Amino acid sequence: MPCTCGNWRRWIRPLVVFLYILLLLVVLPFCIWELQKSEVGTHNKAWFIAGIFVFMTIPISLWGILQHLVHYTQPELQKPIIRILWMVPIYSLDSWIALKYPGIAIYVDTCRECYEAYVIYNFMIFLLNYLSNQYPSLVLMLEVKEQQRHLPPLCCCPPWPMGEVLLFRCKLGVLQYTVVRPFTTVIALICQLCGVYDEGNFSSKNAWTYLVIVNNLSQLFAMYCLVLFYKALREELNPIRPVGKFLCVKLVVFVSFWQAAFIAFLVKVGVISDSHTWDWDSVEAVATGLQDFIICVEMFLAAIAHHYSFTYKPYIQEAEEGSCFDSFLAMWDISDIRADISEQVRNVGRTVLGRPRKMYFGEEQEHNEHTSLLSGGTQEPVTDASSMPPSPTGRYKGFGQTTITPHSLSAPAGLSSAMQEEDDNPPTSLPQD
Length: 433
What we know:
Blueprint: H1 8-37, H2 42-70, H3 75-85, H4 87-100, H5 105-134, H6 138-143, H7 164-194, H8 207-232, H9 234-237, H10 242-269, H11 283-309, H12 326-330, H13 335-352, E1 395-396, E2 402-403, H14 416-423
Antiparallel strand pairs: 1-2
Helix pairs in contact: 1-2, 2-3, 2-4, 2-11, 3-5, 4-5, 4-11, 5-7, 5-10, 7-8, 10-11
């Protein structure tokens, strides 16, 4: 029997606030002691100022995460949202630690870089789960839409056929970044240990330059696939206001990457040189420290933007049930990404061997809290109530209003004849009110 802990929704938030205040009472004296025991140079001043932004950022992000856990009524949507919200405190804490201890910056930054790919993946999961709930015949709906052409700079390429092909390739384009980024991060660690990484220095003789190019191309293609996916399904995604959410994810990922490249360019042209390293050991350490300091400041603004873009208010319901631990444990479940990566490897392997699958979205599958990126199973409505997630389904209307709608009414009117021919059933008219 799940442990509901009484009215845990009433006391969990004051408890978290109390624990955070207690943490501040421990950490702030430590920071002041660190400043007093050493010379108050530029490095320590930057670390202390960055710490102020960090401890303003974390409560904003944690409050949003906590509110989603308290009102965890739609797991298939809120699970990826919670993962996205964790990006800000992870970025903030990672940069603050790297700013204080430059020697371990390459190692702690790997967590930030891998989580960056994880966030893009979860944003795609969020969009797909919403669409799968609202439009179980998503592939048919795409097939009757107007052909979506490629965007610049790929506008000269032949367009991807609407329907299953477009959906699969957009998903594959997003998922490839979740594989490429951890892989290049491991290579970066190996190169660092071998002394050939040389972070922040554009040169044909180090590994950093080539890894930056690979990561940038992979990231740009993942973002391109997200934009193409949104343009093809703009009207269907409008109820969840995806533009603001997409900008929050895109700006954090792109700004952190491009400002690192810009700082490296300043080092290359001599604007940041050995003549002004302040308290750092080298000009490369100055570049890394500047990047970490800027991220600590930017994450405060990102936390505010995430709080409003990924708000918990649409998921508040009058009668909420659930264990105080179930929602907390659910956000740590990564079985969905493991299944999607395995499916990607299998499908790519079949394509290389000349045996591609004919259908990616037309087979029955077990429905869970997530929709597999590569195996949607969206054409057949689910009739077994036990296989559905323990959250309301139907049309998302915002601010706790979720109208239960039969799946047969979710598809556009233009799809009715196609669905009837597929089922070999005579057309029937809906009863009039």
